[in-house]
């Protein structure tokens, strides 16, 4: 739907798009290789620690809380990360460490002092 013209054949539409809308054709020809964002292990640990603190504080929307503390990731990326068993294990370890420390909150590297 590049313009309002109607065409009876696909070849007519293809020619019209090629000649009257060259920018669209050029943009469609660009082949971009996408990279998926991968979190480093230390970032995963920090995110798990922040989530453990959020659980301890009673934060209701932990994914949004994590998004505020880690703005480089999208909310959907954080949500899918939270479903992975490895990340859940990290959160459990951080919650256990937080419980063993007497409930004292660790200094967060993301907060202003």
Q: How would the blueprint of this fold be written?
A:
Blueprint: H1 10-20, H2 22-29, H3 41-57, H4 62-69, H5 75-82, H6 85-100
Helix pairs in contact: 3-4, 3-6, 4-5
What's a concise summary of this model?
The protein is mainly α.
Molecular structure report:
- It contains 6 helices and no strands.
- The chain folds into 2 domains: 1-34, no CATH class; 41-100, no CATH class.
- It has 113 residues and is mainly alpha-helical.
- Helix 3 (41-57) crosses helix 4 (62-69) and helix 4 packs across helix 5 (75-82).
- The longest helix is centred in the middle third of the chain and has 17 residues, at 41-57.
- The mean pLDDT is 81.
Mean pLDDT: 81
What amount of the residues lies in strands? under 5%
What sort of overall outline do the alpha carbons produce when their principal axes are compared? rod-shaped
Radius of gyration computed on alpha carbons: 24 Å
Structural class: mainly alpha
Uncertain stretches: none
- Total domains, how many? 2
DSSP strand tally: 0
Order of helices and strands: HHHHHH
**Largest β-sheet summary:** none
- Terminal Cα separation, in Å? 53 Å
Helix-residue proportion: 55-70%
> Helical segment tally?
6
Main features:
113 residues; mainly alpha; 6 helices; 0% strand; rod-shaped
